[in-house]
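Now for a typical sample entry:
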Amino acid sequence: MSDAQKVADRRSAEPPGANSVDRFFRITARGSTFAREIRGGFATFFTMAYILVLNPIILGNAEDKYGHTLNGAELVTATALVAAVMTVIMGVGGNLPLALAAGLGLNAVVAFQIAPLMSWPDAMGLVVLEGLLICVLVVTGLREAVMHAIPQPLKQAISVGIGLFIAFIGFVDAGFVSRIPDIANTTVPVQLGATGSLSGWPILVFCLGVLLTIALLARKVRGAILISILAMTVVAIVINSVADIKSWGLTTPKVPDDIVAAPEFGLIGDFSLFGSFGETTVITVVLLIFTLLLSDFFDTMGTVVGITAEAGLLDDEGKVPNLGRVLLIDGAAAVAGGASSASSATSYIESAAGVGEGARTGFANLITGGLFAVALFLTPLLTIVPMQAAAPALVAVGFLMMTQVKNIDWDKYEIAIPAFLTIAVMPFTYSITNGIGAGFLAFVLIKTVLGKAKEVHWLLWGTSALFLVYFAIDPIEQLFGVK
């Protein structure tokens, strides 16, 4: 069947009564409704709004080579602006419920590895270069080809791994589990709560939120995730008004004195595209770009596959709809993030919260992006949702994404072992890229020892070689004097 015929078939499947917005986003055609898309947009925003606080903290507390720091208020504006614009563009151009904002992990690399070697404008220029390279890989078709080369079982494993990862993020961010400071290396790495047990009002809010969310999901209540977030936020505000608790974390459930805050655009456009080459060696710049690019490349790949799989949008061959446009917009987000001094922006796995709420199209992004735009002026008001109220949504979404594990053939070891490593390494190392790399390397190795090396797509060989470099990046950087 030709592409034109496929398009005609899809159009014929759209109900005749659908309005222009419905037809553009294919809301009814994908089995969704405007109400579900709106709820999904709100749910995604509330689960990722923490970035408005966390990104300025990470970037604002770091100094560049010359001892300069970035202004916190300007970072909030840059973070919100990039998230708003790129999320809307993804919704309109990619038509997927996939929100974007400054990438965690990537911002830490910029703050603590790149900035100490050069000025802030030079560091952000490096991010812009990385984003431009991503766009080149998309335009040449290489990035899309890599995604198509991944076997379907590994795509399912990526989705399951992201589910466990996002659930673990929820448990950690809520304080339900915490890292154990252990100089002697004599205990397990994490424990229940801060002291080995559950205590404190914030933890109670989280536990109640989990119970409420799973109860609503079990009863198939529409809006279960969003209802839980809003209800627990109200509970947290009431508790905090009585007890004035200091242990909520980044955001405190307290109605602010000043609701409106004027945005400050001082950092927008403050970057130097090639300034980094005058600050350090060429090999250092190349390795830094490689570190950013590989992490951005595969984090996005895993997120896109995981979100679309959970939304039921993959076709029979496991391909993502509008993939080329989606990847190009994601690359452009990295450019926009660097050009705005917000660090590289990327697709967010928290978008799964919106999918869990029923979002299936880019219309949900208009809501999420609109809320980030509102945050430019109402940041104090929109950051009163504590992580303990939003984290239950991540746990619930982890469960929903975990259900895809049944589609993996666990009796076929050449698939099962790479799938297991993909699933396990993501949450255990707190990295989507690490999980994908472990799965790729295991898949290539097992196929080779079984005499089936010819079955491995050449792009998987190439990306596996890159992952070998990625996993050995520290000794390589030490060899070339980067560290």
